[in-house]
Design brief:
Elements (H helix, E strand, L loop, with lengths): L3 H10 L3 H8 L15 H8 L1 H24 L4 H16 L12 H11 L1 H18 L2 H10 L1 H9 L2 H17 L1 H9 L11
Helix pairs in contact: 1-4, 1-5, 2-4, 3-4, 4-5, 4-6, 5-6, 5-10, 6-7, 7-8, 7-9, 9-10
């Protein structure tokens, strides 16, 4: 039965909130506009704050719901972590959308809150601190997720959760390789600016 939770996490994660929201609100497909990324930041460019906010909430919820359900049923921490990882994988490689998904930050944050609310708060606090200091959303996401394994270890002492958290961080870093390159070159757009 425990194996059903990672499967559920992947399937829920595969629901592309950005594409669905843009379609329902009669906006351009985010995969063909702006950065081409089906995530909240690109939806903000395509349609503005309201659809972007809905997308952000939806992407976070699809990470939170399956993980919180796994926690509520007190399944083994390994499978809780695998459910979180599977939800992020679903967002990155959605089975319902030709395996072409977003970058996983909002879904990852939602999954983290599902694991343990305190870890979620620490991760979001890190994102806010870096974004306010440097005005780069991508840098804030990378720093906060790089700290995730440390936060998980301090708060849970579960090596299974730490390893799954590390895997989530690695996946998000991989999907942000273009952002990392732009950060190094100094061409990454800051929060509030236009660009990819």
């Amino acid at each position: 039965m425990q194996l059903l939770f990672p499967l559920l996490g992947y399937l829920i994660g595969s629901i592309s909130t950005a594409i669905i929201v843009c379609k329902l609100m009669r906006l351009e497909d985010p995969r063909t506009q702006g950065s081409g990324n089906p995530g909240a930041t690109n939806v903000l460019r395509v349609g503005g704050k309201v659809p972007a906010a809905i997308t952000l909430i939806g992407d976070a919820a699809k990470g939170f719901v399956p993980v919180f359900a796994a926690q509520a049923l007190a399944i083994d921490p390994l499978y809780v972590g695998l459910t979180a990882l599977a939800a992020v994988l679903g967002h990155l490689f959605p089975v319902f959308f030709q395996f072409k998904g977003g970058k996983g930050v909002a879904t990852g944050f939602g999954a983290i809150f599902g694991i343990y609310w305190l870890v979620g708060l620490l991760t979001v606090a890190s994102w806010l601190a870096v974004s306010l200091a440097f005005r780069y959303s991508s840098l804030a996401a990378l720093v906060s997720l790089a700290l995730l394994p440390l936060y998980l270890w301090i708060t849970t002492r579960s090596m299974a959760l730490v390893v799954c958290g590390l895997a989530i961080a690695v996946l998000v870093f991989w999907r942000h390789k273009a952002n990392i390159s732009r950060l190094i070159k100094g061409t990454e757009p800051k929060i509030g600016a236009t660009g990819k």
